[in-house]
Specification:
Layout: H1 9-13, H2 22-45, H3 59-74, H4 86-102, H5 111-147, H6 152-246, H7 254-284, H8 288-292, H9 295-307, E1 312-318, H10 327-346, E2 352-359, E3 363-370, H11 382-393, E4 397-402, E5 408-415, H12 418-427
Parallel strand pairs: 1-2
Antiparallel strand pairs: 2-3, 3-5, 4-5
Amino acid sequence: MTDLPRRSLVDLLDPRGPRPRPVAHLVFGSVVLSYVLVRSLNALAEGRFVPAHFAYPDPVFLLMLGALVPVCALWPFTAWEPGAPAPRRAATVAFLVSCTVVMPLTAEFGLHGLVAVALTLALCAFGLPGGLAMAVVFALLNTVLGLAGLPFGYALFNGALLLLYGLGVLTAVRALVGAARQAHRTRELLEELEQAHELLRAHAARDRERAIADERDRMAREMHDSTGHHLSAVHLCLVNAERAVAALPPDLPPDLLDGLREDVGQARRLTKETLADTRRWVRALKPVALTERSGAAALRSLTDSFGELGVATSFTSGGAWPEDLDAEAELVAFRCVQEALTNALRHSGASRVDVDVRTGARALELVVADDGRGPDDGAPGFGLTALRERLAALGGTLETGPRAGGGFELRARLPLTTNERARELEAA
């Protein structure tokens, strides 16, 4: 799936936030600067402002400038979302009060922009009641000011127009905030969908790899337990036959003795070569993770790969990995960790799994502990039963059950003497 843009146009126009957004800064600054500029030009045009040869500056304009000072000073400290700290809420209230003071001192130009900014702030900081209250205050204030120089009907009409304007501003801002919330929620849902998709892909890849590894393991086990065993037995029989031929009476025909020795010796050599090839195939069929890494590095890679599937993992090791550990024992160690991690992820409901590998003088110990509940019925499944049988065939043990402090634990012990038997067979 394609990456989504982190922010949209709706997000940029969303006025909510702990401080004024860039768009709010732009609108407020434009309103204040344009108002001051136009009033200044108007005063200069009428010959009533500060050029030195004019004796009397415009007192109303100076009063308006003085009223804008607290408005501009309070602006950076306003809060544009509910639940802001008390000092920022107080600054927001002071800003809104200052706007109501500035309003009687302004002409029509720029008034509506300042009203829109104040209404938006009140709505964002204090919700719909705050926005409506500010709209009513501005409308009443406009009506009262209109009564000073206009007939009652005109003043009331102007107040009603400003109230409708305020309600329109509140409606537009609420629509914009709702659209921003919907866009934000949509982006969150799409990100969650993306994460779920990646997790499903990881699970599918893990299941596919596990299925391939199980099939390779089955083939390797068949070759090791069946073909390898029979070839070893044939090799030992031929060794005994070679010894028997060497012990035959010397009065037998030389051609017969030489032929027997040559045939038995050649058969023994071919059997030994075939047995070596079988062991190489068994090693070649070990799990994919073991083809690129070996020993503790393969177990660490396996543990880390399960950490990508939503469960926290850790791997620790102590002691040097035995370099002469035979392929079957290394494969069994790998299967122990793999089976424990799989059970923790699929059946135990664990959120964390710790793998600890310790190499002693006589044995390799594997401990896989999680914080899950273990098997639902308390009985080990087929995978653990098969592992126990494979460990027993190598002289090892497997223990499973609850661990102290809660959770489930698998403890496997693999004696290092298993490689001595392999060397004896190879030397025979």
